[in-house]
Design goal:
2 copies of one chain form a homodimer.
Chain A (H helix, E strand, L loop, with lengths): L1 H35 L5 H29 L3 H35 L9 H21 L2 H31 L4 H33 L6 H6 L8
């Protein structure tokens, strides 16, 4: 029974990593659509989203079945709880990538727009997601903490892009609609970095049994027991 | 033991509803800050966020302990799984409300901006959240389905507001920065409605054991068993 359970947990991990891999592909294709002005990339992004959504349903289902059948405790339960959350974050990453691709299709039909630091934002966000997934695969807390630290860089790039684009819109009012679209893409990328940060926080909890979210409230409230 | 477990589940439900109530207060105060140009409302919103964050940590902790101690199955397990997800959606609703309030503080220092359908968007989003929480409290599937249907209205209002504000910005370039801010607030409200929709979907799963998310993938993939 235990060996069977271990195989099931391994399978769960595999599904999540497959889902994460699809999300990475989606981000890169969505941004390539924007940068290369290649509308043809919308359809693969949508096809991957459909696969991501199917995995989203399956993984939730697998997690509940594992809890009901095996009554896991301690580390195994924390892995399943982390899987439930990572599942939900990855599904939202997929949504953000679809948003980028759909906005990109509008942008393809407009004169080329200034993208500010968007290419750099993609590198940071996609890198954070990749490393968050690696930290999950390997139970690597140090890598997870490193991901969390990188989120500030993404926020800084977003503000910079935001300001640059608003200035462009103020100088040239014909650029307002496409400037808005570029700003929304920057927001999507910021969100993807937020989801990667959530995943990294879940990895720290999974490995150490220590909840590092909301540090201000942690200090003031009761410390969260690591037992569960 | 069973009676003790029932009391624990009741306590869990109570905490979630308290957290939801705080989120509702936050939304109303954040939007009042914008409409009445009253910066003084930022500080209560931040104080409530801190309470919401504390509940966020506590509720996750309670859920894992209930699973580890009571090894719930069927309906009880679905309630706890729903609680974990609703907890995460409510925390994000709190974040959105804080974003609205912070953007509002910028807007208070600018000439008054056109708000388009934002007041109506608040009514819809806050109403959806309230009803989603009621459907959770009462296990009311019909109300939950009704919440899900209302999300289209919110999306329609957002697009309308978006277009109206872009036109304003094109007519008067001095309004670009504040127009952007109003658009971001409309996006925050749209997200709140999305979170209310997620909560309603979780209620349907909790009560019926039926996952109604991603209908396209449900039809194509294997039906999700209601057992778990």
């Amino acid at each position: 029974m235990k060996r069977h359970f271990d195989a099931d947990l391994e399978d769960l991990r595999g599904r999540l990593l497959r889902m994460g891999g699809l999300c990475e592909e989606m981000i890169h294709a969505a941004v390539k659509l924007v940068v290369d002005r290649d509308e043809g990339l919308l359809s693969p992004v949508q096809e991957w989203e459909s696969q991501v959504n199917r995995l989203h349903l399956e993984i939730d289902d697998v997690c509940l079945k594992l809890i009901a059948l095996h009554q896991p405790a301690a580390g195994d339960l924390r892995l399943i709880a982390a899987a439930l959350k990572i599942n939900s974050d990855l599904e939202r990453v997929g949504d953000q990538a679809v948003n980028i691709a759909e906005t990109g299709v509008f942008l393809c039909r407009e004169p080329r727009v200034k993208l500010g630091d968007i290419p750099r934002m993609v590198e940071v966000a996609a890198g954070m997601l990749k490393d968050a997934l690696d930290s999950f695969a390997r139970g690597d807390v140090e890598l997870a903490r490193e991901v969390i630290r990188r989120d500030d860089e993404e926020d800084r790039l977003k503000s910079q892009t935001f300001n640059e684009l608003v200035h462009m819109m103020q100088r040239d009012s014909s650029s307002i609609a496409r400037g808005m679209d570029a700003i929304l893409i920057a927001r999507n990328l910021e969100r993807i970095a937020d989801h990667a940060t959530n995943i990294a926080e879940d990895v720290v909890f999974m490995v150490l049994g220590k909840d590092i979210r909301h540090p201000a409230e942690q200090a003031r409230g009761e410390p969260r027991p690591s037992g569960a």
